[in-house]
Specification:
The complex is a heterodimer of chains A (112) and B (121).
Chain A: E1 4-7, E2 10-13, E3 19-25, E4 38-43, E5 50-54, E6 58-59, E7 67-72, E8 75-80, E9 89-95, E10 102-103, E11 107-111
Parallel strand pairs in A: 2-11
Antiparallel strand pairs in A: 1-3, 3-8, 4-5, 4-9, 5-6, 7-8, 9-10, 9-11
Chain B: E1 3-7, E2 11-12, E3 18-25, E4 35-41, E5 47-55, E6 59-63, E7 71-76, E8 81-86, E9 95-103, E10 107-111, E11 115-119
Parallel strand pairs in B: 2-11
Antiparallel strand pairs in B: 1-3, 3-8, 4-5, 4-9, 5-6, 7-8, 9-10, 9-11
The chains are: A mainly beta (112), B mainly beta (121).
Amino acid sequence: DIMMTQSPLSLPVTPGEPASISCRASQSLLLSSGDNCLHWYLQKPGQSPQLLIYLGSNRASGVPDRFSGSESGTDFTLKISRVEAEDVGLYYCMQGLQTPYTFGQGTNLEIK
Amino acid sequence: QVRLQQSGPGLVQPSQTLSLTCAISGDSVSSSSASWNWFRQSPSGGFQWLGKTYYRSKWFHESAISVKGRITINPDTSQNQLSLQLNSVTPEDTAVYYCARLRGSGIIDNWGQGTLVTVSS
């Protein structure tokens, strides 16, 4: 199984400040297309997860441009340029390269 | 617009069978460009993929090794839904269960609302 290691697990952020979450895969997630099969999800309190970023760096429809994804080998980063109150929740990375699909442990972003 | 509506009991007794249904609207369970999956989220927040079914000229099924032998995922084309059955449950199977649609490259673009299933006598 591909192991996904996420950090930090807890992330208190002041509104308007940037935030960054890291995710490392235990093996390459590279597709033949050159894309990485790594996706980011946000689970707001009491809700199902929602897709934020797909294939490492592509924002899903309707996702604000303050969210961005980057990649370097098997290391992936989700950045929020200026955190807003509505961004609170659990952030997960997930690999979709092979089954079993696996997730990072989750990062709990909270507002200071 | 795709919508996944889950239904099923929230309490199951140990050693019994967990059964959930996911009704699909806005897409077809027989879609040749999607797979239909079940995940669960433990009380501590971790996600686990349980299995999937998909149609590519014939039906395919895959399940996680950790639940293989206990899990059945069935498509129902007449009702356009999929079901999950997990046999011989224990308290460790207590979790929020989600159905989800995956598109290419394992992208989950639609989730059900989630069903909290508690295994307890």
